[in-house]
Amino acid sequence: MFRILTYALQFHRPPKASGGAERLTTAPGLRATTSLEGGLISSRFDPLPGGLASYEAPYVLNHDGTLFFEWGVIRFGAEPGASELTFSSVGAGRLLRPPGADGLSHGVVVWKIDSGTGALAGAAGAITSNFLINLETDELVDSHLGVVRLPDAQGGTQ
Question: Is residue 135 left, alpha or beta, with left meaning phi > 0 and alpha meaning psi from -120 to 50?
């Protein structure tokens, strides 16, 4: 049997500085609120105290820069032994071109979970990545929604 873990995180990677060190792509814990009132929609993301998640995801773009394949790892915490998920693209991700006036290009990709460690050992499932990236500065804002199936030690589902 299994239990389901659903999570939402919004990752950020700052713009690269010339000659600067490699920047981490990180996300704090998050409280996401979406309100529907009077035919209007509003949303709010509030960071929560505690550790950070980070991820690394090398990718390969096609010839015209609109399709890509990606793989990587998400670490949930910085301490030794922190839980991790490894993932790879389900088909090609899409990068919408041209970028907007702000220099940001919108993109989307679905990843399958290949494996997990720590509290995520035995994980299966999928993660959607809906993002904005500045291809000149490498700045990234990446919203993840993960639906993770985990083995349930009690033999039931939640």
Answer: alpha
Task: Judge whether residue 86 has pLDDT over 50.
Answer: yes
Structure tokens belonging to residue 41: 């929609």
Say whether pLDDT at 69 is over 80.
Answer: yes
The Cβ of residue 88 has, within 10 Å, a number of other Cβ atoms equal to 13
Largest CA distance in the chain: 53
pLDDT at res. 154: 54
Q: Is the pLDDT of residue 108 over 90?
A: yes
The length of the chain in residues reads 158
* Mean pLDDT over each residue of the chain, to the nearest integer: 92
